[in-house]
Each structure stands twice: as C-alpha cells, then as structure tokens.
Amino acid sequence: MHTRIHINNATLVNEGRTFVGSLVIEDDTIAEIIEGTAAPSVPGDETVDATGCYLLPGVIDTHVHFRDPGLTDKADMESESRAAAAGGVTTFFDMPNTLPQTITPEAVEEKTAYAYRHSHVNFGFFIGATNSNAAQLARINPRRVCGIKVFMGASTGDMLVDKAAALRDIFEGARVPVVTHCEDSALIAKNLEAFKAQYGPDPDVRFHSAIRSEEACYKSTAQAVRLALETGARLHVAHVSTARELKLLRRHAGRVTAEACLPHLLFCEADYAELGARIKCNPAVKTAADRDALRHALTDGTIRTVATDHAPHRLSQKQGGCVRAASGMPMVQFSLPAMLDLVDEGVLPVECLVELMCHNPATLFDIENRGFLREGYKADLVLVRPRSLWTLPPCRIESKCGWSPLEGHTFRWRVEKTYCNGFLIYNGGRITDTDFHGQAVTYNR
Question: For this structure, is 309 an active site residue?
Fold first, then answer.
C-alpha cells in the first residue's frame, strides 16, 4: 500500500546540523527533507506533529549478542529486536558466538534467513574467526557480511583465536572490516590464579577489573594494531575500556578505528559496590579516570562508534563473583536515552551523538542507504522527546532476561516513535505490529 507520512515541526539532527523542519516518508524511503515551515511538494496521507521532538536517523548498533541460535533461554532474536525498536535502534549487527557458532558463509545465510522471519528491525551478521577457518573467511560475499569478529581474548562462547599464524592469515585475507575483542588471555589467567590463591575459587566481582586488567587490554590491542599496520586490514577495535589504549589508538587514528560501548561510558569499578555482577562484562569496566577518558574521546575523533555490547543473561546466571557470574548485560533498549543523558550533562553535543551512533557505523561498515537523513535513503528514523522524565521499572524492559543495571534510573529523554523502513514499529511505549519484520542491510563493497 502506497503511503506518504509527513513528520512536521521536528528538530532534525543530521550531518553536523540541527534545524527545525519536516521530513516526508514515502513507503520505505525518505522522499523529502524540508528546512523551515514550507509545505511538502505533495501532501502526506498522514501528518505527525513532532513539535518539541528531535528527529534522528535510526540508531545502528554494530555490537550485540542476541543469543539466537542455541542460547535462547537468555534472549532471542524476536525479544531483543523488540527491545531494539523500543530504544530507537533500527539496525543491529549480531556477533557469532552462538550455538552453533557463526563461522561459515552458510551459517551467516541461515541466520539471515531466520532474521527475516523473526527480527522486528534491520540486521547484519558477523562471521566469526577461529584458529582454523581462514578458508571459510575467504569464501564470504562482502556485500552480505558486515565484518569478521576476532576474539583475541577469551570471552563468552569459547572462540579464542590465539595462534599467531592464524591471526596473520585472518588479517591478511580480510576483505571486510576486522573487529577485535582485545584482551590477553594468558595474562588474565595468570591474574586470576593469583586472586584465587588469595581470595578463594570465586573472587569477589570487585576484583574483575584487576583480573581483566588494563595491561591485558593494552597488550592485546597493541598486537591487533600492529597486525593491521603490517597487513593493511581495516581494523575496528571493539569496546575499548582504558585510557592507555586510547593513547595508542590516537597515534594511529588514520589507520585504525575504535568503538566505545555503553557499559564503559556509564559505569566504573566503584559501581560494583552497588550493582555487583550486574555490571560484570568483558572487558571489565575500569577506573573513573578510564571512563572519563572514554567520554572525552567521543569528541576528539579517537572513538568512532558507540555500541552496546548488548549481552543478556538470566539474572540467576549473574550471581557470584569473577568466576561464577556471567559477563554481559542487556543495554540495547536504553543506549539512546542514556547517551542523550550524556548530551544533557555536556559530555558531547547531540550532533556528535548522531555521528557516533548513526553516521559513522554506516560509513565504517559501508552500509548502503542507511544511517543518514537523506532523500532517497531508507526511512529508518527515531523521534525522541527531551525534558520528558521517566524512571525505568522492570515491567518496561523488553529483553527476555527481564532485568537491567539501569533499573530505577530516571532518564531525561523518551523514545516516542521508531520507524523502520518507513513503518512505525514503535509508538508511545508499545510495539505496533509484531508481524512486521526488518531487512538485511547490504554493503557498498
């Protein structure tokens, strides 16, 4: 059915500019962008009065773990994409550490076919690297795979790549971006044994940042940067967590890019006292100085993308200390409101937020026709209202796991509407049509 939707009187934020105007959606595409109060060239079938709201490109979260297939007691593609829509996220990139692991082109295609039936928003999938699948990585279609994920440190899913020859083969053969989880597993194991000797078999979670230490992160990140410089691979370092890594990455900003994730921007090790294992993640949240350095790096060009590392677990799996409690937290529903809170706090301007969460993900991963408010681009949009205080109760959490470390937090911004491919998928606190499904994004490669 042919439709035209006129979103009127909004404050549009796009490509470094903020202005009052309107936007016209025609079917799944942005048909017209109007600055000021002029009427659209053709009247809309529907007019949305967006007075007082900001209209942004839909968020592209390039780092999520939706747990599907094989780990669906924690989360699944339907539940987590519903949470994404509620948070203004219109595209996600899912990681490969599932059961079975996504480590062949065929597995990527199977996951893509499944997502067409179950995801409420748009999607892309990483293929995972192993110590022995370089031949599989060489077979990928660059227009169908967002990137190669390399676990250079052990984390959830047991996909550690720790052989030097395998790492070099992966970097040398990569035709798509290489995204790395950088922690030195040998050093982490050594640290853990020392803490176990002093504090028992499951040291308190407050020691997590000392076990998964600054040195472990830096050592692995330095190795990844060296490999990228030597091979010419397009390296994007995931979830940078330390000020020391930022200094290294700043020196190579023209060749290597970096991601910050929400946990490391919001929390620091002092928060273990209140939140305990709810904020346990890999890499660990570090010091307040590291958190503040990451926040500063959002505006100086060192950090190029902000993602969530959305990683749900059942709350029962989050009990215990450094060994027993699972690492990861659900964040995709709350990344945009939380980052907009940082805008209000003066950490970054709203134009920079849009670059980090919309424009730069699209550019770095060569996403076709998404991530910007541009005529002819897909109508992936989010309408947010400032100065609209609300406090998060558990009943508002869409993720299957049913909890969040942000429970009880009062946000200053509210997601009003989310449009995915021109369809109003989220409106005023609810998913509008659970039968609507997103599309696989494609890449200009």
Answer: yes
